[in-house]
# Entry
Amino acid sequence: MSFLAIDTECTGARAAAGDRPYYISTCDSRGVIRSFSFDVNPFSREPTIPRKTIKDVEKLISEYDSYVFQNAKFDIQMLNSIGIHIPFEKVEDTIFAAHTLDNRAKRRLKDLSKTYLGIDTDDEQDLLNAIVQARSIAKKMGWNIARHDYDDEDGESWMKVDGWIPGKLALLSEQFPQEWRSVLPRYGDRDAERTAGLWTVFKVLFEEDERFYKAYKANKVCIRAIVTMESRGVTLRPKEFQRSKGHYERMAQKYETKMRKLIGVKDFNPGSTKQLQVVLFDLLKLKPIKTTKTGNSTDKHVIRALYKQNPDNQFLESLIAYRKARTTVTYEQSYEEHRIGCRLHSSFNPTGTDTTRLSSSGPNLQNVGKGEELKEDEWGTAGKDTYNIRNVFGPLRGRVWLDFDYSQLQLRIFAAQSGEQKLIEAFENGWDAHNFMACQIFQTNEPTTLQRRIAKNVNFGFIFGASERRITETCGDPKIWPIVQSLFPSATEYLEKTKRFVNKHGYVEFGQPVCNYRLKVPVNPNTEEPKGYTGVVYGVQGLEGLIVKQAMAHLDRHLSELHKSYDAPFLTLQVHDELIVDAPALPGLEWHLDLMRTIKRIMEMAGEMYGVKTPADGSIIRSSWDKAEEVELMYA
# Structure
């Protein structure tokens, strides 16, 4: 089958903000290269794209069976922005292929080309040198040169967005280096050639071991859904967003002032590690817990542990509250920098982690929790204030959000992978995993808050492959782990079995019966030996990522097939195990309930594909994300 590798060079990284392609290069399976260049207005940065050129590109594309990209979701959005549409079912992506073959290796196009093709990167440096010189000239001429104000998730130099400037200057006057005319075509065409070469190699590797190809397909299934989320964006509530920004700034200032008064130091800066070390360990005489190269650690885990030891210490309480407020301020500053009107068009990176989970940037929306982690600290309320950033998000007028969240997905996956029958039956009987663990450990029907917290630490100790020592430290009771071992023999044996496998092979496998995904685990930098204890979490989070991506893909496809208008429901956001659909607020509730039942079924079927029962809970959001109305959904 013939394929066409396609690469775009663009005036920026955000199609939603008006950035557009200025150079399209292609290379087919026979090595034939064709490219298309567009003139860019130096003051508006808008490319002039003739309709005839669009037709020429479309004609070229129609001649091939499949289309290969390095980071397909980016190039597809850029091509969409100028009216060129690529059928998703024919898309291949070398980034996904590279992740499947080696999840811990670098995945930049240049790095992959050097590893698999032996191609050096000298052409990129030639381009960058020309851009640096040309930008200096263009700036003096009043041209609109780019600012480094966006995240480049592929690790490429941000200045490539001005790759059109050298050639334009060379065409404008012979006083500028005439070799600048060819530097962009040489670079752009080489990228398409690299992408074609990589796919040729990857195809051979997939043919040699079909397991890799099945894993690749399972991971890349989400491309279309990501394009939908990035292009449509997620909405902020304008008035609440403006109010919230000032609120958390004042809260941070309040606790900063309180800390200064408590220690009697007017110019104390809580953001200074050195000053904080002096206050905590010299002035307040607290006992250090961990030492680093820069002295006694003041990271969040240390501060929490100190607060646990000193629950009446007002300085520690204020410090925790200050850090929470500053964290919230930082998040909202990022939203302000990236918002386009009332929408955030985050970049979701489906291969941005060493497992299969998604990451996001510009801004990072994966760190928007449900509020609990900011509302109440692990060891106390720390200031008694409410920290909830979800209230700045929500549907626009005339819309609602249908919010679905997998119920304790990681723990359900662990139960299935370990074969621990007690945990499996507990889930089947409707137990909350932490309550169940607490009841088992402490032999009670009504566990206290502290007992549930200890049980939660045990559960996640399982998932993260924690040692007996670590679980004992976290729970604060040396008797806990022996009890857990006796209660859950299959789970504890699975931990040891996985560690032994990983120590021997260096990877963990999961995903049956759909695929056999293999993830390499981190190694100890001192010994180069695999970190066996990471095998469980890599297996759990790896399968978690595949299930969520499968749900995203099927949900996006269903919504696009049933509802064709722009006002129709669409997938607007993914945060870990949570998916949100933005839908019209139609009169009555039955239409929404029918759609919610379908969403629930799609998400649960994604887990069933991998042999895991994955209930999904649904709610309706009419105003702000933090005010969800839970809905009891029964299948017909």
About this structure: The two ends are 44 Å apart (CA to CA). The mean pLDDT is 91.
